[in-house]
Amino acid sequence: MIEITFVPTFAHWQRAAREALQQELAPEEIAWQELSSHTPSLPIFEESTDASTGASTSTKQFLVPKKFVELAKQIALHSDEQRWALLYRILWRLTHGEPKLLEIFVDANVALAHEMAKSVRHDIHKMRAFVRFREIKNEDGSWFVAWFEPQHHIVEQNAQFFVDRFASMRWSILTPERCAHWNGSELSFTSGLDKSHAPKDDAIEGLWLTYYKNIFNPARVKVHAMQAEMPKKYWKNLPETAVIPALLNEAPARVETMMKSSGDKIAQDNGDVWMRAPVPETASLSKVAAASKSCTACPLYKHATQTVFGEGPKHATVMMIGEQPGDYEDVAGKPFVGPAGKMLDRALEEAEFDRAEVYVTNAVKHFKWEPRGKRRIHQKPSARDIAACRPWLEAELRLVQPKVVVCLGSTAAQTVFGPAFRVTKQRGQLLESPLAKRVVATVHPSSLLRQPDEESREREYKLFVNDLRVALKAAR
Ligand code: URA
After folding, report:
1. Is the pLDDT of residue 296 over 70?
2. Is the pTM of this model over 0.70?
3. How far is the C-alpha of 466 from the C-alpha of 430, rounded, in Å?
4. Domain range list for the chain
5. Ligand 1 mutation pick, 328, 336, 378, 406, max ligand atoms within 8 A of CB
6. pLDDT tens-digit map of 322-361
7. Considering the domain 265-475, what is its CATH architecture?
8. How far apart (Å, rounded) are the C-alpha atoms in residues 357 and 351?
9. Ligand 1 pocket check for 340: Cβ under 6 Å
10. Torsion from C-alpha of 451, 452, 454, 455, nearest 10 degrees
11. What is the number of the ligand 1 atom nearest to the C-alpha of 412?
12. Is 329 in the pocket of ligand 1 (CB under 6 A)?
């Protein structure tokens, strides 16, 4: 048995695995040994010039599908130490006569790899959804601190998301393994906190103040520890050095903006760009839904947890269109699962609709919000947000081909009929639009929740159910 000791990141494992392949070391001959003193950190990915080459050297070339490299990068963040051996078993088989192994989903190794990658992705989502900051005020102003316990090594991978979302705040996310800090211009990392020190609500303040002193005042104690954790240039708080990380931070966004400045552009404002969403040409609704998950056509994706695409049977007879996902939907990744969704369910039941037979979607697929304290307050999507997202809705209509479309609220109705449409005047009528032959517009279910008293809520609810019945009759 040969022991390979390595720093547990994808890049280091990849290097070691290449070496092992060169020496024709079979998986059962290797014991993968993580350097235990090393805190897992952001993998430094080596991109090969040929995207499909996961392992190559000057002596021998090993070709693996690009898919494997992507999968391996995710699995590298998993907390199970056995992941390296699993990856090598798959790599070995891919390069020893089973090049299509990844397509065999029932294979035990492949299934386990997908399960691990899914668990990592899930953890990343969970962290995005459930990190809650607590504001700490001191003489230098506010700092927001959150405590989170991820299951996998995802803190560094996920930190940029929080930088994008909370760029104007100064914050720290403390975890047992790794802590991320953003001081408004620099992102830095320090070692984690022992679980036994996990802060309770009132303990977090003292904890944070200790951290604050250690991290941002290099004249204080633990300077060597800090130097080991992050390069000197990042904690040296000189004005001229502060500009460089800020520029580096802005670089990806700038490149993105430049790339977007050609082609199917709708609008540009303050460095943000709105494009028509890039819907793939396919007859598969699930492929369109999958493509929507990486949509960056308008700036809303930057602050949303995920794309919330429509859901329901592919050939549903009724399609309901809302405005945009709310806070609950943004976290769950499903449309109409929050309070408005519950109201909709109730009314559908009363109108004798089976929600399982209805395709439910939104005019805009990302949650638009603004922070108010800890809360995320819904913001109405703008005309350009709606225009950028429209190709997804058009694709849903084209592929589902519902007999009747129900527009829930004025955003959906104006998306379908144009800006002059007034729900108050034309609700509950069977109408025709360029997007769909039979459309019924009604109010948004959340408007029922906002009624000032029981009586008006009951009255509005009945009208809403009546409008749904018009749609149901047309569908049948
Ligand atoms: N409101 C909407 O318009 N859509 C949802 O999915 C949830 C709330």
Report:
1. yes
2. no
3. 12
4. 2-125, 131-197, 265-475
5. 336
6. 999 999 999 999 999 999 999 999 999 999 988 888 999 9
7. 3-Layer(aba) Sandwich (3.40)
8. 13
9. yes
10. -90
11. 3
12. yes
